[in-house]
## 1
Amino acid sequence: MSNHGHEESQHGSGRYDPPPPRSEISGPTGGTLEDLRRSVVALRRRVLRLSDDLRLAIRRADEAADRNREHVCSLESLEMMCATQGGEIGRYRAEIHRLREERDALQSSLESDRIIGLEPPQPAPEISALETQIVDLNRDLDRQSDEVHHRQAHIDDLSRDRGHLESTIRHLTSEMTQAGGEILDLQQANHDLDRSREDAESTLSATEESMRRTRSELDRVETELILSRSDRADRGPSGPDPQSSQADPQLMGPTQAGLDQIVRERDSQQDQIPQKAYAERERTITENQAQIRTLSRDLSKVVRERDALRHEYTAAFQRLTSISATIGAPPPQTQLRLEPGSDTDQPAGGIPRSPSAETSGSEDQDADTSKSKRSRSRSTSPSPSRPQKKRSVPVEADDESMDEEDESEFDLGGGSTGGGSPSPDQASTPPAKDSGPRQSSGEVIEVRSGSDEEEEEENAEVADDLYEAQTLMAISQSRSEARRGEHVSPQRGSSGSPGGSDGSDSDTGSGG
C-alpha cells in the first residue's frame, strides 16, 4: 500500500517530461500577399480548434472535481460509521467491565460462604456462564478493534489520495488558465496583424493615388513640352526669337530635373513599400506560429495529466468500492464507464475516452461546422449588431487554406504527418524581386479583385467564430470557478474527522 501511495504521489505531482511535439504549422517561405492571407486564415482556424480543446479540458477538470466531491462525501460517511462503531466498542467495554465486577462480587461472596461453612468450593453455574460471556465479548472486542484499525488505515489512504487529487486538479486548473491566456494573446496578435495589414493596404492605396497624380502631372508636362516644341517649329522659318531661345534652356532644365526626381521617387516607393509590408507580416506570422507550438505542447501536457488523473480516480474508486463492500455500506453512486465510445453523451461521473479519439471527433465536428457556417454566411448577410472588420481575404485563398489544413491533420499531442516549422531566417526572407519591367498604375489597379462582398462575408464569418469561441471559453471558466468555490466547504468539513484523519490531511496539504 505504501508503494501504491508513492506511485500516486508521483502521478499527482504532475511533473511529466513529454517529448517536444512536432509542429505541423509552416509559414510561407516565399510568395505574394495571397500566401500571407492564406496563412493568416489557417492560423485563425487553428486558434479556434485549440479553443475548443481547451473548453473540453476545462469540462473534464470540472467532472474530476465533481468526482472528488463525491469521494469526500463517501469518506465522511465512512468516518461517521467508524465513529458509530467506536461508540459500540466503548459500550462493549463498559458491559465487560460491569460483568467483571459482578463476577468479582460473586467470587468474593462464594469465598466468604466457603470460609464460613468450611465446605469445599463448588463451581457456580452463574460464574461459568459469566466467564463464557466475558470470553465471547473479549473475542468480539478484539475483532471489532482489528476491523476499526483496518478501516482507519483505509481512511488514511483515501485521505492521502484525496490530497493528491486536489493538488492535481489545482495544477490542471492553472495550466488551463495559462493556456487560455496564451490563446487570448494569440487572438490579439492576429487582430493586430489584421489592423497592420489594413494600414498597409491604405498606405498602398495612397501611394497608388500619388502615383496617378504624378503620372498625370508628367503627362501634362510632356504635353506642354510637345506644344512648346511645335510652337518653336512653327516659328522657325520666321526667325528665332533670342529671348525665347534664352528662356527655353532655363525652363527645360528645372522641368526635366523635377521629372527625373518624380520618376525616381515613384520607383523607390514601388520597391520599398511592398517589401517592408511583406517582411513585417512574415515576422508577425513567425511569432504567432511559435506561440501556437508552445500552446500545443501545453495542451498535450494537460491531456497527459488528465489521463493520469483518470487512472488515479479509477484506483481510488475501486478501493472505495472494496471498503464499502467490507463494512456493508451502500456502494458509491458514481458509475464508471470505461467504454471508449462515449465522449460527449456520457454522464458527469463517467471517465472520458482517449485523447486520440477526442481529437479526431473534434476535427470532424470543426470541419462540418465550418462548412455549414460558410454556406449560411454566403446565403445571408452578416449581422449588423456586431462591428465587422473589412478584410480583403479572397475566397480562393480560404479554400486553398482549407485544403492545406485537411492535408496536414492537426494533432493535439503535438504530432504532425509531415513538414517541419521553418527557421526564422527562412520565414523572414523577402520574396525575390521581379526582374521584368515595373507595372504601371493601371496594372496595379487591375490586380485588386472585384469580389469584395464575398471576401467581407468570409472575414465576417471568421470574426463571428472567434467571438463565439471567446464567449464560450469565458462561460466555461466562470462555471469552473463556481464549482471550485463549492468544493471548498466539504474539504474544510472533512478536516475534523475522528481517528486522526485531519492530521493526515494537513500533512498531505503541506506536502502537496
## 2
Amino acid sequence: MRGNPVLLIVIFYSVFVFLGDSRSSSSQSKNDDQVYIVYMGAASSTNGTLGKDHAHLLNTILKKNKKALIHNYKHGFSGFAARMSKNEANSIAQQPGVVSVFPDHIMKLHTTRSWDFLKSLPHIEVDNKLSNSSSSSDIVIGMLDTGIWPEAASFSDERIGPIPSRWKGICMTSTDFNSSNCNRKIIGARYYPNIDEDAGAANTVRDTRGHGTHTASTAAGRTVSGASYYGLAKGTAKGGSPESRLAIYKVCYNGCPDSAILAAFDDAIHDGVHVLSLSLGPGSASRPALTDDALAIGAFHAVERGIMVVCSGGNDGPGKTTVVNDMPWIFTVGATTIDRDFLSNVVLGNNKVIKGRAINVSPLSKSAKYPLITGEAAKTATADLAEARQCHFDSLDIDKAKGKIVLCDGTTDHLSTQDKIDAVKEVGGLGLVHITDSEGVVANDPYTDFPATTVVTPKNAAPILEYVNSTSNPVATILPTISVLDYKPAPIVAKFSSRGPSELSKNILKPDIAAPGANILAAWIGNDKTAAPKGKKPPLYNLASGTSMSCPHVSGLAASIKSSNPTWSASAIRSAIMTSATQINNMETPITADLGSVSTPYDYGAGEITINESFDPGLVYETSTMDYLNYLCYMGYDTATVKVIAKTIPDSFSCPKNSTPDHISNINYPSIAISNFIGKEMVNVSRTVTNVGEEYETVYYAIIDAPSGVKVQLIPEKLKFTKHSRKLSYQVIFSSTLTSLKHDLFGSITWENGKKHKVRSPFVLTV
C-alpha cells in the first residue's frame, strides 16, 4: 500500500495578504522531533470510533510521548498529526492501513460592487429592516481562513430564524470571543492553535488579519448600505448568499498548517456544512506531492460526503501551468475585474493630466508643485542603473529622492507597486508614479495615505518622461483616488490570476470558473490601524484583491443555488455554474486578459460566473464519487490503495484495466480536456447529462464551435428527454485534417432546447 498513496493539490494566495512560507514545515522541538501527518484513508465509522490500526498506531506514539498528539482525525477520514522523529515517521509509513506520512507543511492565503455588476438575484437579497425569518436559510458555508470579526454589521442575525436542528457544530470561546459572538448567522466557530505560536492570536476565533472577515462577508454577508473605504467604492455591501449561515474554522495565523486544515475538514464534515470555502493553498512553484497534499485529502473526503469544496486557483499568473488546487473534486476559481475603476491622476507642471490608477488617500496639494525625479536620476553611486530605474530597495539616494515624487519603471521587472513604495519611502520620497506595461492594469489594494499611482503603459507615460527630460526643475502632484463606475471593458482576467493548463493532468481543464477578485469591498476587522490613513479610524470595510476574493463569490453563489435546489449534488451545482458562465464582457465582445489578448479557457475555465442562469441551467453534468475513484486509478493508484482511501466504494470495485492518464478525459466533467492531440488521430470521449429543467418533455440540439482544422462529431446530435428518461449520454469524436498542431486549440459544445436553456461546455485540445 505504501508507494501508492493519494491525493491532491491545493489552493491560492492573496495579493493582499501573504501568510507564511508555502513549503516550510512546523518548527522542530529541541529533540528534533517535528509534526508529521499520518493519513489512513477513510474513517472506519460514522460515529468517530477509531479503527483498529488507527488506535494501535496512536497508542504507540503516545506511549513514547504523552504530549505528542496534535490532532486526531476520525469523522471524515482516519489519521492523526503528532510529533515524532523522522525515523518514527518512516517506520509508521510501513504499517498496515497507512496511506501516507508527510511533514506538517504550511500553506498561505491567496490574498462592493461585485454582486451588483453580476446582477445578483433580487430574491436572495436581504434587507435587515424589512426581512423576516423566511429570508434565512439552513445552508451552512464553512470558511477555513483567519477567523472572523463578529461585530461587523455584515454578520448581524437580525430577523434570521433559529439555528437548524441538524447542526452539530460548536462555538469555541476565548478571552476575546465569547459565546454571544456566535449567533443565528455565525452558528459555528472553531480555532486550531498552531503549536509553534505564542498564546493569544492563536487561541481565539477572532480574526487579527482581516482576510477571513473579508472572505466570509463576501460569501454570506448581510446587506449593509453605505459601505465604503473612506468614501471610495461607496454603496451597498452584501454577500453572495446573505441568507446562509456561517461556520468559521480558524486555521491560519502566520501561515496555515496542514494539520490544522485537516482538523477543520474533519470537524466540518462532522458539523454538517454544505459548502466549504478555502482562499488558501501553495504557490505554483511549491506544490506538495500528490500523496502529501492535506487540502486535497480533506477536500476529497468532504466531497465524498456531499459537501461542495470551493478553492482559489492561486495568484501566480499570468504564466501557464500556475493554477493550483486543480483536482477534479475541487471547484477551482480564477479572478477577474469588475466595472469599477479607481483613478489617481498625475498632474504635471505644464498642466497636462496623465491618467493613473490606484487606491490612495493622497494628502498632496492638487497643484503641481512637488519636485519630480526618475529613479535613474536618483540612483546611489554604487547602484545598478537598471535597478535604480525600477526603484529597487537600496538603489535610491536619500539626498536625491527625499521630498520628491519618484518615477519608477515597472515594465521590465516583477516588483509590485508596494515593493517600490517601500523603496521610495525608505529614502524619504514624497510619492511614487509606477509605469507598467499592462493595458488592463487594475489598482490592487489600498496604499492608504502614501501618494502612489500606476500609469498604464509606457505610451501613456511618454508625456511624463518628455516633460522631465525637457524641464530643468520638473514638478508634479498625485491626486487622491476617485471611484469610476461602468468602466469598460469588464470583466478582464486579472494579471495575477493563475492560469492553466493543470500541471497535474492536462486531461482536466483548470481553472473551472472565474469571478470578481480585484478591488473587492467587504467587511474588515475593526482594529486594523495599518489599513487606515494617518489620522483616520480603522476602516469597517476594506478593498482587497486576489483569487482569495473571487473564491467566496463562487462559494456564496453555490450556497444560494443549494438553498433553492436542496436535492442537487455538489457536482450538479458546479455544473450549473460552469455551463451558464459567460465569455462576453460589458462591451459585447470576448472577455480579454490583462494584457488585452482574448482570454481562453486556460485563463477563466468556462468563463465568468452569471447569477440568474445558474439557478436554472436546464441540464447538469453530475460527477460521481466513482468518477473520482477512477481518476485515482488513471493517475496510477492501484485498487487496494483506492479502497483504503474511499468510504463509499463498493466491495466489487477494481481499477479499470489498462488505466492511463488519458482516460481522465472521460470523467463526467462539465468541460472536456484532451492531451496529446496529434494530427489526424481520432479521440472519443463520452458525457452524461441530467435534465433538471421544469419541462420533462424537451429536445436539446447541439451547437459546435470548433477551431479551424478540427472536426467535432456528436453521437447523437440531439437529446430527447422524457419523464422516464431524464438522464442521457452522448459521445464526442474529435479528429483533425491537420498533419500536426502547433499550439493548443479551444472550442465549445452547447446544447440548446430552442427556449431559454443553453448548456455550454468548453473543450481544450492540448498538443
## 3
Amino acid sequence: MDAGGNTRKTWGIGADEGDSLLTSEREIQNYLLCHPVVARLLWNRGLRSAQQLDRFLKPELSQLPDPFSIIDMEKAVSRVAEAIVHDTHREERIAVYGDYDVDGTCGSSLLVDFFKSIGVEVVPYQPNRFSEGYGVHVAAVEKLAAEGAKIIITVDCGITAVAPAKRARELGVDLIVIDHHKVGAELPDALAVVDPQRSEDSSGLLNVCGAGLAFFFAAALRAKLRELGFFEGKQEPNLVRLLDLVAVATIADVVDVRGVNRILVTHGLRLMARQPRAGIKALLEAAKIEKPTSMHMGFVLGPRINAAGRLKSARAAFDLLTSDDLESARKMAAELEKINTERRATQDDVQLQARAQAEQQLADPKWKELAARIPAAQFGPWPRALVLAPPAGAANWHEGVVGIVASKIAEEFGRPAFILAEKEGAADSLKGSVRSFAKIDILAAISAASVCSHLTNFGGHAHAGGVALKREGLAAFTEALNAHMAVTLGAESYHRERRFDAEVSLDEIDAKLVEELEKLGPFGHQFPEPVLKLSNVSCSGVKVMKEKHLKLRYERLEAVWFNAVRCERLENGAKADVWVNAGWNEWQGVKRLQLSVRHVEVR
C-alpha cells in the first residue's frame, strides 16, 4: 500500500517448482526486452520466472490438460460413443439441454455443432427464463423422454438436478451433467456428473466455464470415437473451430482468465479474427467490430447473446450461433440487435426508477430511528443495503434486467443492492437479484436466521444472488437485513481499495507501452486490463459528452471518462490522482493514444 492508502495490485500467481526465478523487475525487462512499465506490471502480477513468462506470453493448445482427467468424463463419453458407433442414436435420441445465459447458450451451441460435424442429429433444449426458470426441470425431462430422448446432456446446469435425475432414471433416460457450479447437499443420481467442483475431481479445472467443459467433452468424445474406429475412412472434426464460442462464454461468464482459460480464449480470439463462424461474424458486423478483443466478448457480444434469454427466448441466440448461412445469420443478428436495444431501453427505465427510489431511501429518517434501537450497531452508512421494488399497483419491473440494474445501483451508491420484480401472475410475490459491493459477503447476510426467515427462497454466492419473498414482508425483510448488517459490518467493509498495477508519469505512456500492454491480453476476471496510476496531474479541456461522459486532456494525452455523471466534477487545471487504462482511439483511419479514466481523486 502506498502513502496515500492506495493498493498496488499483487497477484497470487506462484512459480512452479524448478522454474528459473527472476529476482527483479529489471531482470524481467532484460529477459523480455520489454518496456519497464510492462516489466513492473508482470512483476506485480506475480509472473516472476522465465518459464511462467514463456507459458503466459505463448499459450499453446498443446498445454491443455487431458480431458479424461475430469471426473466421470470416461463414463460420459463412453455412453455417447456407444450410441453413435452402434448407430443406436437414431432410436436413442440424444438431447442437449443448455442454460439460457451466454455460457449455456454457447456451450449447447458448441455441442450441437460438434455432433453435427460427425453426422449426429441431436435435440436442443433451453428452458424459458420466465415460464420455467433456471436449471433442469422434471417436466422438461419428461417432455424430452416422450420425444424419444434416451440420453440428455446438460450444459452449464444440472448439478442440483436431484429430482430431474431421479425422474430420468425412472424413464430409462441416461442423464449426463456437464456443469461448473458448486455441488449442493446431494449429488444428482445421473449416469455421469462431469463437474470439476466435485471433491473427488483432480483435474484442477475449477475455473473452466460450462462451454469450456463442453469443449473438453467434445475432445474426449472425439478421442473415444477414434479409439473405437469411428473415423476410419472419415475426416476427424477440427475442434479449434469451436473455440470462438468458448472464448465468448469464458469472458462473459466472468471466470478466471488465467491458466487453461487463457489458452482457450487466446485461440478463440485468433479464430474470431481469422475465420469466425457465421453467427459470430454476423454479430461482429452488426456491432461494427473489425478487431475483436476480450473486451468485446464481455461488453458487446455477451450482452447481445444474453438479451434473447433476458427478454424473450434464448433460442434466438442459439439459432444464430449454430447457423451455417451468413445471410441468414445476418438477419438473425439484426433481430438480436433489436432485442438488445429493447433490453437497454428496458434496463435504463428500470434503473432510472430504481435510482430515484434509492435516493428516497437514503434520505428516509427511519434509518436514524432504526440505528437508535440497535445499541450494537457499528459506525457505517445507512441504509447498509438498498432493497428496491416497484410500488404495489405500479408498472412492474422487467425480471430479465434486474440483475444488471442491481450491479449498476450497487456500484453507483456504494452498497449492496436488491432489485425485485413482481412474479408474473402473482403481484403479492416478489423475486429478484442482489449484487454486493466491495468485500461484503451478501449471501452471509441474507443467510442469517433473522433475515432469511422473511424470504421464501434465496441462493447465490458472496457477491451475487437471488431472493424471493411475499410483498407484505418487504418492509420487515429490509429492516431485518439492515439491522443485521449494522451489527456485523462497519464502515471499513464499504471501502473499496482503488488498485493499480504501476504508478507512472505521463511521459512513460507512449505508443510502445500501449502496444506491449495489448500483447498481455486477453484480459478478464482475475487478470483485468492494466490500471496505471497518475499522481498529482492536472487536466484541461474538460467537456461533457452526451450528458454523462467527460472528454479531457492530460498534457499531450487525450482522455475519456465514461459514465462520470455522478462523479466528482472536474475543473480545468484541477490537480488529481487518476487511475487509467491506456489504449488507442481509432476513428476514420486515424489511430491516437487515448486514456480511459477509471477513477479520480481531486487533491
## 4
Amino acid sequence: MDETQLDSTGERERGVCLETINNNSNENPPQESEMMMKSSDDALGKALSSTLSSVIKDFDSRAQNTLQSQDQLGSAIHRLTQELDQLLEDAPLPFIMQHAAKISGVRKRVSSLNSLLKSIQRRVDNIDRMLSVGIVHEKEATESS
C-alpha cells in the first residue's frame, strides 16, 4: 500500500509499507483511496491556482499603475516642452538653446521608454489572457471527467 506523508520541507514523500491482511479492518477500498487522492490533488491544484491568480492580479495592478504614471510623465514632459518652446521663441539665447537640446533629448528617451513599457504591458496582457483561457479549459476538462 502506498502511504503519502509530508516531510519537513512540505514535499510529498512516498514510501511503501507492508500491510497485514486483516478481514476485520476498516480500510478504504481502492476506489475510495483513489478518490481521496484525486480530491487531495484537486485541492492542491485549487490552492496553486488561487495563489497564482492573486500574484497575477497584483502584478497586473502594479503594471497598470506604472502605465498610468508613464502617461502622466509623458503629459508633463509634453507640457514642459511646449513651455520651453515658448521660452525659446521669446529669448533664443545660446545658453537656453543648449539646455533645450538636452531637455529635448531626455524627452525623446522618456517617450521611447514609455512606448516600450506599453508594448511590454500588451504582451503581458496577452499572456495573462492565454493563461486564463488555459485554466478555464483545464477546469472544464477536469469537471467533465
